[in-house]
From TrEMBL:
Domain Pyrrolo-quinoline quinone repeat: 75-173, 175-290, 303-360
A Pfam family hit: PQQ_2
Name used for this protein in its record: WD40-like repeat-containing protein
Domain of life: Archaea
InterPro entries xref list: PQQ_b-propeller_rpt, PQQ_rpt_dom, Quinoprotein_ADH-like_sf, WD40/YVTN_repeat-like_dom_sf
Length: 402
């Protein structure tokens, strides 16, 4: 009995720590790995679905059993029960919410195109503070080192104190790229093509590099290397300490997507407007495989045993991370700009039709598309047309992959 009581006590102590695993901000963590804490095996089936009444452009996050999602048509952020989809609360801002929220310390940070950064109580939606950034915000906030890092559409990049909302420092550069951080440095790309490594505490520039092209993609950090793509499809790998280039790779297609990584195999994955996923060796940039054509991809893929991704025209898919072969597909009711989130045995997806959809593992037979090729992808006749249409749609919606 004594041992049982001790075991129960230990579980009670560990329960909050276990719950904190979650998917609490864009691309799971401060390094933007997009790696889930557990594997989810396809095929998947819909567990629940909730409509929030407007375009869900930003990606969902999950924190302490609550899913948070923004409304790109309205001005709200919604808190839903992650197990059932039941609405817990909603908070109305002064503008559209198109960036992915971030959660920590019992709170959720939401950015709006009204120019404000809001910190809300995660349980009730009560406003704790707000900060006026003077410009619309598409960049997804990053919570790191008790600060909120976020860029504005035509103003500055900010570091705010998480507890008080007071400004710690700013960089006068416009950005839609969402920052990543590691080892005391925060990394972000700008409209003018400059990629920065900044001291997270002071904001002082550690190093920078002019890519000569606009950066909408967000960085990924792994093993003292930071990876980022320019809009014209050039993928860079920088040494995080010196800023020296380790390698580059030309994807051959425009991209706003952020790379993901398989930590065990040291493989990078990134999607393009050209509708393909590229798998590269993270250490030297060599090509491992290229997936078949799926449709324009703005999102990051989630790494959860296999790869889960979505296309702008609404195809949700699973790929084998080792060779890119198709494992499963599902047709959403509308298109998607959001990246999937994986937590607690579920995959969560947001759509342009306003649906927040939760999937769980299923015993059904998977739908398998054709196998991939390991060769550099060619561009069929239809691909430039689809890519051009996708670029126009992106410009009209004035948004970036979240």
């Amino acid at each position: 009995m004594k041992r049982l009581l001790i075991a129960l006590f230990v579980l009670a102590v560990l329960a909050p720590a276990i719950a904190l695993a979650d998917w609490p901000q864009a691309r799971h963590d401060a390094q933007h790995t997009s790696v889930a804490d557990s594997a989810l095996k396809p095929p998947l089936a819909v567990d629940w679905q909730t409509n929030i009444g407007g375009k869900a452009i930003s990606s969902p996050i999950v924190y302490n059993g609550t899913l948070f999602a923004g409304n790109g048509d309205g001005k709200e952020v919604y808190a839903l029960d992650a197990a059932s989809g039941r609405q817990l609360w909603k908070f109305t801002t002064g503008g559209s919410v198109e960036s992915t929220p971030a959660a920590a310390n019992g709170s959720v940070v939401v950015c709006s195109y009204d120019g404000y950064v809001y910190r809300l109580d995660a349980s009730s939606g009560r406003q704790l503070w707000k900060y006026y950034a003077k410009s619309g915000i598409y960049s997804s906030p990053l919570i790191y080192d008790n600060k909120v890092f976020v860029g504005t559409d035509d103003g500055s990049f900010y570091a705010l104190n998480l507890d008080s909302g007071l400004i710690a420092w700013s960089l006068p550069k416009a950005t839609q790229s969402s920052p990543a951080a590691d080892n005391g440095k925060v990394f972000v790309g700008t409209y003018d093509g400059t990629f920065y490594a900044l001291d997270a505490e002071s904001g002082h520039e550690v190093w920078s590099y002019d890519t000569k092209d606009s950066i909408h993609s967000s960085p990924l950090i792994h093993n003292n290397t930071v990876y980022v793509a320019t809009r014209n499809g050039m993928l860079y790998a920088f040494d995080t300490i010196s800023g020296s280039i380790r390698w580059t790779y030309d994807l051959g297609y425009n991209t706003d997507a952020t790379p993901s990584i398989n930590l065990a195999t040291e493989t990078l994955y990134i999607g393009t407007y050209g509708g393909r996923i590229f798998a590269l060796d993270a250490t030297n940039g060599s090509l491992r495989w290229v997936s078949d054509f799926y449709g324009p991809i703005y999102q990051s893929v989630a790494v959860s045993g296999c790869l889960y991704g979505a296309t702008q025209d609404g195809k949700l898919f699973a790929l084998d991370g080792a060779n890119g072969s198709g494992l499963w597909t599902y047709s959403l009711k509308s298109g998607a700009f959001a990246s999937p989130a994986v937590d607690g045995g579920r995959l969560y997806m947001a759509t342009l039709g306003g649906d927040i959809v939760a999937f769980k593992e299923s015993a059904d037979t998977p739908t398998t598309p054709p196998s991939s090729t390991s060769e550099q992808a060619s561009t069929p006749f239809l691909e430039p047309i689809i890519c051009a249409a996708a670029i126009l749609l992106t410009a009209n919606l004035c948004r970036r992959n979240r």
